[in-house]
Amino acid sequence: MPLAVPQKSFQAERPPDANRIEAAPTDSVVGSTPSGRRARQARGNFNYAKNFTLSNVVFFAGQGQGQDVVSKLAMTDAGLHSTARHPPPRCHSNTRKSLRARVTHWATNIARESKMLWIMGSVGAGKSALAQSVAEEFEKLGLLGAALFFSRSNHRNDPSRVVATLANQLRVYEQYEGIVTQIVRDNPQSMMGDRRTQFRYLFTEPTPTSLAPQVLTKLRSGRYEYATAEELQVPPEPEVPLVVLLDGLDECNSEEAQCEFIDLICSQVKGKHALLWIICSRPEPHLEHAFREAEAEGLCWVEELLIDDPEAQGDVERYLRDEFERISNKYPDDLVRETWPPKDIFDKIVSASSGHFLFATTLIRYLDQSDSSLGSRLSVIVAAIDGAPLPPGATNPLAYIDSLYLEILNRLDDRIRSKALELLAICLACPPLPVLHFSQLLKIDLSTVLDVFFPLHSVISVPYDENLIEEPLRFYHASFTDFLANPDRSGTFSQGYLNPYRYRIIDACFRVLGSSNTSYADGLKWDSSRFGAANPSNLSVFHGLLTFAATHVWDICTRICDPKLDFVRSTVAGFDYRLLKSVGNTVPPQLFVKFLQWLYSVTKDIPALSTFVRTNAQSDLDFQFIKRCAWVSKPLDMDLEYRGEEVENISRYALVGHGEETALILVIPDCVMIYSIEEVGDV
Predict the structure, then answer these.
(1) Does 514 have pLDDT greater than 60?
(2) Is CATH 3.40.50.720 the right assignment for the domain spanning 76-305?
(3) 665-to-557, 597, 600, 640, 651 alpha-carbon distances in Å
(4) Where along the chain do its domains lie?
(5) pLDDT of residue 640
(6) pTM score, whole prediction
(7) What is the pLDDT of residue 632?
(8) What's residue 207's pLDDT?
(9) For the residues of 589-623, what is the DSSP string, one character each?
């Protein structure tokens, strides 16, 4: 379709009528801004007319018809400068600079390889702030076509109104408005169709090869400016397309609609259309699958807003430093010291934020209130970070973050909620373990694990396909685990008491440590078709579990205070420690020393187990053990005051077990050595 609005008359053909006055189109262009957007002048059909009479008048709609239909469907509160979003989140001036520069370069680079950009990030990574800042920068450059900010909580999430919302904003470009007007006039039902029909009419079929008849030039000053080729008096350069931005696509109602929009955009960017698309969202599985497919086809560039990378952490620290300075200048009467906040408190807040922009901005928003002294508010923040009780009457500084986490958990389907909370608790109690191994250790079907965590991708990183073999489940930020562990914050979702889940992990680890390679490996089962050629062998997965158990079970045990008697008897005292001989090089000496001291403390008062862990001879067999090793080793001190003591250069010994199942354990700086009675002569 040509750029110019077709000159076809907007009036229906009728016989001439002397008593009828035909209304001309009411909108006219009175000028254009450097950005290419139209400046409109409101006019009536008979501006300044007076002292005359009309009879039997029939008016025919012109361009206003397209305006009315589209504007009525549009979500006018979802735009860049909507008052409903005021004040919108924005990037601090010194944050996300490299990513913002990359996005601008992508949009202004005619050699770009793709016309769609997906920016993904977990809850609190700063996606909306980045989207707002990027959109404002493109607006200054004259590159912004439209921006839509979804919000589930504010009901800006109706998929049937998305196309109209974008078209309504693009109409400020006169050529696109002419297209919309003609479409609505020629096909009044076009906006009443489904999303795919609306998109086809308003974006796929009619979109001209350029919506903005301008060229982007870079002046010698280094600033980007917009000017027409005629104004520059230079030959036309390749034109830079307009940018359409969708923020929070994951909050658009229904996953089906979200995926449909991605499919529609993919179809559009395959053509020679002057639109670039930026979509920001959480890394929900269905979205990641759709965007990764687009990436594989060369249609999409993917950027992840990381929390734990050095740039993000540095950005958050700069933000906090600047905001603390601003607040100290705002409340000078509250300060009693020149250096505020104290360095140790500032470092604590930076460490707790750990690259998480929402966490940092939430604390600053709480601090920047006037309902109490600055010192009192800072003390409340420190208490919240430490997980300590808040002062009487104090509000929770993390309430906003908690509300987001509660929303995520409340949206869990009833069928999986209890299982999800169970697995979340296990993740809290369990050191990181590749997802495949996690499912095999706990004897939970891999598909069940993935299904349960499917709706939690905004707070937990869940790998895909062959990455399940190597990568663990990972919480994006400690604020979520702190939330789950604190019943005052998470309420019925709280998983603060982890011992039942620790028992389960420990039982599973000791089963692995006590099994032979073949017997345990043969019992491992998973859907091998998921991994294709990368499918691991049962034996390799078993060895992964064996390494995990030998490395981590000792520390998990020591985290249990006052363990249940049946757990002590059947699990930790029911294990044959001679079986550790094959993994002695894997067992961490320091953690194992703490475990032996813990094991001694939980068995010494149980009559049948009072000598289960010992350093003094209780039998002739013990005497033989000790005699062999006493000249090269010292007895391990079982006093719990020495739990943090480093293993000295000289080894320490202890006897664990009863009778012929007794194991002589030598702990030296770099490994743990296990001997049975048959091997005592080798000591």
Answers:
(1) yes
(2) no
(3) 18, 13, 14, 18, 10
(4) 76-305, 311-397, 412-560, 581-683
(5) 56
(6) 0.69
(7) 67
(8) 54
(9) HHHHHHHHHHHHHHHTTSGGGTTSEESS--SHHHH
